[in-house]
Amino acid sequence: MKKALFITFEGVDGTGKSTQARLLKERLMQAKVPVVLTREPGGTRLAEKIRALLLNEEGLNFSTVAEILLYAAARAQHVDEVIRPALEDQKVVICERFTDSTLAYQGYASGNDLEQIRQIDQFASGGLVPDLTFLLDLTPQTGWARIQERMAQGQQDRIEARGSAFQAKVREGYLRIAAAEPERICVINSNGLRIDEVHRLIWETFYDKYHSLLGNCR
Ligand SMILES: Nc1ncnc2c1ncn2[C@@H]1O[C@H](COP(=O)(O)OP(=O)(O)OP(=O)(O)O)[C@@H](O)[C@H]1O
Ligand SMILES: [Mg+2]
Description:
binds adenosine-5'-triphosphate, Rossmann fold, alpha/beta, binds magnesium ion
């Protein structure tokens, strides 16, 4: 039986990806499923350095193409060094952000050519597509309120600094991507839900699709 699974979490900034990815990982570990949790951009030493370049304001000026290619370089290293080896080891890989982020942020929200972005991504990822993607969706009001909370604590990064109109475009992009691939992408409407309630929805979806991986554990 195939045990390797590639699961991604997507969504606008602050929608709960890190929180929910960690909870899913813990749940799978309890069920004795071998699992690797990782994130993009990042996940390897080289890719974390690229992440720092991309996310931290150092006064650097990125051309659009340079930005897209830096993300792609980070992904190529991450797939090669972490994700594929773990999948070959029959592990479940949970990754915060992947191709859909590139399409939503650099494509739909920034207005770059989607087909070109798809081609670059295909080259970078070697055509790796997630088995299952959770898109955490919040209305712009809720999502933006969370980002502003973090700004107040001085934790804002370069992407978040693009403002609420940009975040709204990212969300629209995500919803269009999800509408085109309903089999792969599960949209989780997180408005008004507590962390444990969102986790329950995610777990139910996972369980429905993949309970055969879990033995007797629920
Ligand atoms: N369902 C929820 N209700 C209320 N607060 C939440 C919920 N889920 C997450 N949070 C809080 O919102 C903040 C952002 O969550 P988290 O870091 O998991 O989001 P993220 O999508 O990973 O963000 P980023 O895009 O910046 O990585 C955290 O302070 C987290 O505790
Ligand atoms: Mg996060």
